[in-house]
Automatic annotation (TrEMBL):
Annotated protein name in UniProt: NUCB2 protein
Subcellular localization, as worded in the UniProt entry: Cytoplasm; Golgi apparatus; Membrane; Secreted
Pfam entry (one): NUCB1_N
GO molecular function, one term: calcium ion binding
PANTHER family linked: NUCLEOBINDIN, NUCLEOBINDIN-2
Domain of life the protein comes from: Eukaryota
């Protein structure tokens, strides 16, 4: 009671209800490990974030951060593919177009499943904005 936020303390955020909530949180956590990006994020207003201006800052983050983001994206694509496979198995329809199914996931660039690029950050921001703004 009466205690404020302590520097370095992890703040628990409520679940957003998005089916990609865990991915969103992991991307934010990794981006915040980069000092330059964290400073840009803290000083950016909502319009800069929604317009994609902040996404361009991704090119300036450290190699380690980009590598971790690439790994997160590959994991998310694998998770989505698993969901698609489970859906396919449940309906036993062999004529399903995998690319068409991936297109329904608007929070990442499905055409490039291996690397996390500024377009991915922009798509993630826009997907969240569409849901909440």
């Amino acid at each position: 009671k009466g205690q404020g936020h302590v520097e370095g303390e992890k703040v628990e955020n409520p679940d957003t209800g998005l089916y990609y909530d865990e991915y969103l949180r992991q991307v934010i956590d990794v981006l915040e490990t980069d000092k330059h990006f964290r400073e840009k994020l803290q000083t950016a207003d909502i319009e800069e974030i929604k317009s994609g201006k902040l996404s361009r800052e991704l090119d300036l983050v450290s190699h380690h951060v980009r590598t971790r983001l690439d790994e997160l994206k590959r994991q998310e694509v694998a998770r989505l593919r698993m969901l698609i496979k489970a859906k396919m198995d449940s309906v036993q329809d062999t004529g399903i177009d995998h690319q068409a199914l991936l297109k329904q996931f608007e929070h990442l660039n499905h055409q490039n499943p291996d690397t996390f690029e500024p377009k991915d950050l922009d798509m993630l921001i826009k997907a969240v904005s569409a849901k909440y703004c």
